[in-house]
Amino acid sequence: MLTLASKRQLDHFGLLSMNCRNLEYISRYNKRSLYPLVDNKFLTKQAAMAADITVPELIGSIQTPFEVNRLEQVLAGHDQFVIKPARGSAGKGILVIDRREGDEFFKPSGSLLGMQDLKRDISNILSGLYSLGGKPDIALIESLIKFDDQLARYSYQGVPDIRVIVFKGYPVMAMLRCSTAESDGKANLHQGAVGVGLSISTGKALSAVQNGNLVDHHPDTEQAFNKLQISHWENILHLSARCYELSGLGYLGCDVVLDRDKGPLILELNARPGLAIQIANQRGLKTRLLHVEKLATTSDVEARGRHAIATFDDL
To answer: What residues does each domain of the chain span?
Structure first.
């Protein structure tokens, strides 16, 4: 029977508490003036493209209620796409369309929506219904990720993504977030997605957890996690490490998706990444963070990646 590590065991492995994360790492290493860049997915995307960091293709954006009327023109020729709030969090307000027949749009679940349904969803986004603090927002329309065939076996009606914690430019811990029927196709652990801890050295699965319980296979696809290994792993670490210079944040979460044709893409950045990644990995973050604090600062992204691969699985 699979059992979670106890708090005492996690403490032994360097469990990072929320208070410690907030006071010693987020407050200390993340300047408040830099938050707008990562809290707004539109600004993040623009900055990433300027830095030649790969991101999902932007089909268009709707920034005012008046522009909602031109949605037909924005979506012309597009049968698969994602509508999302620029300032949203925890997957709220994201609408995925994977099939279209004229003005009828279908979600991965098969649910049918009309053009007016899409416009209503966008109006809700603009009103700030899903944004941090309820502030007025803009709607982004992105091309749908054609996710890697290997990962398709570990996800249900949604795109799995990889969360990498980066500290002072070093990728220190990672997990794969797999959508489930319970999570309604969203890769959100708080809604019932599965978090799979990943080896920093190899990208292989270490352990997996759903709703606070260890699991050994995906609840919907029945695929065993012990056979999972992420492809393009070194590229994923390199891309994540570059986001340190992109954002200026010392402690951040990088969300990466694997596109079947384009490889790793940065989906979004997070200045306040959650701590559930420790449970998925059955290891604490603090030991790795303390190790990085002792290292000399370097702008050599390749060197940071090599050090992560050689070091963090043993901490």
So the answer is: 7-53+148-314, 58-143
